[in-house]
Design the sequence.
């Protein structure tokens, strides 16, 4: 059990803000949704929002801030420049550093986009009797850059990033139906089976996160991932982008169940 | 049976383009999704896309055109200036005319937003054994301006428009579950019961469309409606907006079933 599993999101965000928590957030604040982050200058905001509309599986947008406003108001009462454990800064598509606080980089033209996270559907998977290997092995989820081209929008283009959970064949149907009810957190898998078919060369070497054990007879199942905007940033090279470090999410004030249809 | 029920979308759009069809489109091209339209100058496009993100029940966006491009490429191979039977033009929030073709008003900075339509879930309702009164009575669906404030975005604000179907109590649950699976076409009802609670004074006098019979013992059930952008235009007064006339939709090339989760 994660030591922060039963704390409130506000309490955990306070510890993150104070620098007491700088690691990945899987397992914290049971039942509450976590979110991916991409911050872009306003000049790219329309293109990004359109990109998200065209690519809803990797980029289901949960909240968009007002330009220049560090505070979120809808999914969390949070300061987006301080309340994530680890950030990445990209300049012209190249990662130039990781930081636990990005206040020093803030500008009046920055817009924050918060994107649904597959951590939200993992409790649904567990409830449906589906095993989640990286939770069992206490690791970050394995994530991979694929050859699946996203639908471009304006200046933004790039390939999809996916997360992977290995499943015994008899659990695949339940994994599909459980995630079908949650389109705001990536919904159903984008691929089931051979990793090579989506351009993954070595399933044991994820591009982000950590590898997990795949037992004999298990099939890798892939879901669209909210790290996709970082692939887009690397391909499209906007002047500046600030993101979360993969696995180091914003913990929101909304319950996962609110992200189900209805 | 509508005389155009079994024609292809491309054939019906050709008749619309030629001026042979100028009426409402309910019942045409069985199984194919229809879409609401709002066209705005690029200066308002970010605010509208953000408005839609913040108000997904009334404004589930299916496609956004490139600025200045009259052609759609995703949900239909269509010319958006000619392929809808009847348009409305609003200048500074005031409707200044209805037209069957808006080519003469086209500008290089116009962006078209196509929005999901409740016609798409009506076949699901019928399949689930739920009666749809306006289809039985061969009328346009009744639509009402409510007192439900949408979440504003930039220059855009306004109240929600809803469509109404009267149901016997034993059919309400099935209507909720059938529409829960279709969030891209408004999803579940926003209100069930007393019209006065959402600011509707006279259920027999809809603000758009036509009234339908409500039998003794039936409950009015309300769904968010893609005419909401027209309420937003009237409240927010952008310099120019071009919309469909309520009930006179774009007939797309995609099947309703594709708009279900999955």
Sequence:
């Amino acid at each position: 059990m994660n030591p922060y599993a039963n704390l409130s999101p506000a309490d955990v965000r306070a510890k993150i803000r104070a620098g007491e928590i700088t690691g990945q957030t899987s397992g914290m604040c049971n039942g509450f949704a976590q979110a991916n982050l991409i911050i872009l200058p306003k000049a790219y905001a329309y293109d990004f929002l359109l990109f998200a509309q065209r690519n809803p599986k990797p980029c289901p947008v949960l909240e968009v801030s007002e330009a220049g406003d560090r505070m979120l108001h809808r999914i969390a009462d949070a300061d987006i420049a301080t309340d994530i454990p680890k950030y990445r800064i990209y300049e012209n598509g190249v990662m130039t550093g990781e930081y636990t606080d990005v206040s020093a980089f803030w500008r009046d033209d920055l817009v924050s986009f918060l994107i649904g996270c597959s951590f939200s559907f993992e409790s649904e998977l567990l409830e449906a009797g589906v095993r989640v290997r990286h939770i069992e092995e206490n690791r970050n989820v394995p994530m991979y850059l694929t050859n699946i081209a996203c639908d471009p929008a304006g200046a933004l283009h790039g390939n999809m990033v996916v997360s992977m959970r290995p499943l015994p064949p008899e659990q695949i149907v339940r994994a599909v139906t459980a995630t079908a009810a949650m389109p705001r957190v990536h919904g159903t898998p984008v691929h089931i089976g051979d990793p090579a078919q989506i351009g993954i060369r070595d399933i044991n070497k994820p591009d982000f996160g950590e590898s997990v054990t795949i037992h004999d007879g298990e099939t890798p199942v892939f879901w669209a991932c909210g790290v996709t905007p970082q692939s887009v940033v690397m391909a499209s090279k906007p002047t500046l982008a600030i993101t979360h470090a993969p696995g180091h999410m914003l913990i929101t004030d909304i319950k996962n169940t609110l992200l189900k249809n209805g």
In short: The helical segments of chain A are 9-17, 45-54, 119-127, 133-136, 172-180, 228-236.
